[in-house]
């Protein structure tokens, strides 16, 4: 693949992902892409724009509206040695494909005694904030994290969306690549070319000494906004894990060693959620580093309702994160 | 379909091996259960041997096969060494899946045996993937996928056959209709007489055959494989059959006696034995010898299993994820 160059330009998430796919397909004939509306139309999010024309209908194609069949095709093709990438139009639609993901793709390596690798990537947009109501707004990463055999990637920046997708496609396991729909119009200055962001390496988004905030996907941006509002009063360190499995615990512990305080923020439900597990891991590995009880800000115990006033009330807002930080520090 | 005398004898002995293997496994499991051990689930394919052997006779070693939880026969017929089958069913490190899969999850990458499945009907969507891979690579490999009369009630059945028909994927969908999904009669699962008729909805052939007649299975599977290899698309084959035993070991026999008698007179191995004798290929003494050879082979496999170690838990993490 062409290396990262020094030329910089503005890039949006979908173009970044499209470029990562393009480069992966150019480099490896085994990389194929399919799903609903992915072929002729170029994907409802424009994920595959131009790719069928470039790589042909055998490598980029439309499927029937059958998520179970799409996931099965993906897993079977991976068993046969291809490196398939599929788009599930909304992560909410994963429910229809869950058996093929959870009972098949995630388990076949183990059930075969390690004989079959399943190098496959599932790209699915997630999250609330677009007024698409209860069945088009979920954040389901906790389900996938509770499924041994899967890896889970949740990028927050355009740079990471491109670099992590390249890494996911190159990985020899099933990878859930979940990008947040509310970041669709994010624009970021990035280098030209192609790069890889390794799975399992967190990024320190903001350095600070008073409190460690672990936040990913859209919540990383909201945590950054909250930290900016508190600038001069509270020194907030923000860690973006970027991938939830594998998880870079070392970077979090290094930060907590400095701050003594841990707050985890995520949009998915609080109950049995990602934050609870991150807190568990920090407590097990570095309880003595903590000056006070760690906290989690997460989605409330509700499906995502439609009306904007309701939708905003069930997922963490900047003000919620700011209040949690203030309560912990002051 | 023309077979040499040796080929016919080999097909017969494979059927006998499957049956004797199933009987032997049940004996070993029953013995362990008597000791208060729970050795796992075991789903016998006794009575269905002609389907596995007939279909496999039409496949090449590089063709893909997806199996079910009643899949020992599929594996043996595809060419999985009996030692690996016995060792896996009894959880040994020398088994087909190194003891990680068990009876329901026999895998063998070297013969493209893509595994059994504990989820009813779940092999059908996976079959789309290997079939697509063959098309994409321009090989003429065929994918065969087995499922039961119960599996035909799953959404996965309809999604997979629909997509395979649209894409003209080289798949043969083999429905082993043994009349019962666990304890539920097929009439409770399907509103029409023949599951094969569902093929019409997808515009593909849906032949219905006597699954206990090896030669009917061979001819029908052969035509479906030719069609698939020739790029003409998938076929749904319904094989009417009967398993000798109830769903699995812990479910007592519940099926009507008159049905059991009806099928007892249509046993596939008895039919094959009669054919070999009538065709002058093997007389009673020769058949006895073939049976004895199979028994020896199985005995050696059981000894191999008993001498094999159990898998080492220290390896679990590296089996779950690829490096």
Short description:
The complex is a heterodimer of chains A (330) and B (323). Chain A is an alpha/beta fold and 330 residues long.
Key traits:
heterodimer; A: about 325 residues; alpha/beta; Rossmann fold; 2 domains; seven-stranded mixed β-sheet; five-stranded mixed β-sheet; 11 helices; 14 strands; globular; B: about 325 residues; five-stranded parallel β-sheet; two-stranded antiparallel ribbon; about 10% strand
Strand order of the largest sheet of chain B: 1-2-3-7-6
- In total, the number of domains of chain B comes to 1
SS field, number of helical segments of chain B: 12
Q: Measured on Cα atoms, how large is the radius of gyration of chain B?
A: 19 Å
Number of domains of chain A: 2
Strand content of chain A: 15-25%
Uncertain residue ranges of chain B: none
Oligomer: heterodimer
Q: What is the straight-line distance between the termini of chain A? A: 50 Å
Q: Give the full name of the CATH homologous superfamily of chain B.
A: Thiamin diphosphate (ThDP)-binding fold, Pyr/PP domains
CATH hierarchy, class of chain B: Alpha Beta
**N-to-C order of helices and strands of chain B:** HHEHHHEHEEEHEHEHHHH
Write down the overall mean pLDDT of chain A. 97
- Element-by-element helix/strand order of chain A: EHEHEHEHEHEHEEEEHEEHEHEHH
Strand order of the largest sheet of chain A: 3-2-4-5-7-6-12
Assess the beta-strand content of chain B as a share of residues. 5-15%
Structural class of chain A: alpha/beta
CATH homologous superfamily descriptor of the largest domain in chain A: Thiamin diphosphate (ThDP)-binding fold, Pyr/PP domains
N/C terminus separation of chain B: 47 Å
